[in-house]
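Weekly structure sync, notes
Attendees: PL (lead), two postdocs, one rotation student
Agenda item 3: pending single-chain targets
PL asked that the sequence for the first pending target be pasted directly into the notes so everyone works from the same version. It is reproduced below exactly as submitted, 183 residues in total.
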Amino acid sequence: MQATATAAISGETTMSELLDISPGAQRALFRKYHIGGCSSCGFRPDETLAQVCARNENLPVAEVIEYLHTSQEEDRRMQISPAELAQAIQAGSTKVIDVRTREEYEAAKIEGSILLSQELMQEILGKWDRAALTVFVDHHGVRCMDAAAYFAGHGFTQARALRGGIDAWSQEIDPSIPRYHLE
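Predicted structure, written out during the meeting:
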């Protein structure tokens, strides 16, 4: 399904539509072109991709679209399914790091997961095995991609994000974990 959706990206795609099609697009645009990461390089939701490219050194739209396709494929490789994570947990070969708020974590969590804090982040960066499977979890699998990408950028070769987040885990693996909606 996502491969078909990616084909729909064009210069006339608004940035809001682009982020719906590919939630990791903003991370990808910032990584390669320094677009969308701060107020000085941000974009409006109603701007088209072509407009954003034009005001960022006239970037070739086709090149940017191709990069977004590649980046989306890289994002898919960085994800782990709930079933794959369940197997890894059962094998005892993974650490599960939850990047949600303390309130969300206390309301619904994967058994054995650890809530990310500044102190834990420093411990991970300083002491953890960078080749071990480390899986990041959030509500729907969007923000945890940022965490996985961050740690992958710091040499964690098996940093992964739980596809669909705790919501997918609750649906596919452990229905005793309550599902919730944030307002």
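Discussion points:
- Residues 52 and 58 are 9 Å apart (CA to CA).
- Residues 1-6 have pLDDT under 50 and may be disordered.
Action: rotation student to compare against the earlier draft before next sync.
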